[in-house]
Amino acid sequence: MPPAANNAPRKALSVDGESRLALVRRARRIKRCLDDAYPDAHCELDFTTPLELLVAVVLSAQTTDVRVNMVTPALFARYRTAADYAGADRAELEEYLRSTGFYRAKANSVMGLGAALVERFDGEVPGKLEDLVTLPGVGRKTANVVLGDAFGVPGITVDTHFGRLVRRWGWTDLEDPVKVEHAVGELIPRKEWTMLSHRTIFHGRRVCHARKPACGACPLAKMCPSFGTGPTGFEEAAKLVKGPERDHLLAMVTQS
Fold first, then answer.
1. Model pTM?
2. Lowest CB count within 10 Å: 27, 89, 211, 226, which one?
3. Catalytic residue from among 40, 159, 222, 247
4. Hey, which CATH number is domain 50-124, 3.30.110.30, 3.40.50.150, 1.10.3720.10, 1.10.340.30?
């Protein structure tokens, strides 16, 4: 239960007429709050090699990371190299992927991916964005995940959560993921891009939900021009907060 002072209604932050400098400063305050909220944020797909991560990201389309992580231990034990995927028995591979949904298309993707890696990159996952995006089924989002988490190269991953949140925060009103990536990249230092992506995605999954964000229990509320999109009362909003960080997130609100 928050202190009485925190029960008072909060006004939504207006960004009308906000200068570029004010936007940059506010974006970086939000970034710092995310740092405090999710210090342990990370890629929620399990992997040990760049190839495993690349395959896992491809499989994550139209399903959850949890579901992919249920499938990949057996998959990665059976298919260890790009050549293994390129030469896979399609029916066998499809059975490994069946529970992820769209398993026939995903089998095509990972087989094609394996073949392209063997033919053009000696079976190794390249560490440059311009090479990764030439691979079948690999766009900038997938490439940035692989670069950031497998190679330590900063990248901004614009998935549905990331795009939704940065628009709610008033960082951009753009919809195109590539344009969003560049717009956000102009606000936040490059070295922070990968962790910003993880922490924003964590926040989208735990607090700032698509249909009913937990505005009244959000540590970013005072900086968010979209405050009020979801319930603003603490007790009602707190019920919407998910994840292992829940107690920590709620404490950030009650102690602010």
1. 0.89
2. 211
3. 159
4. 1.10.340.30
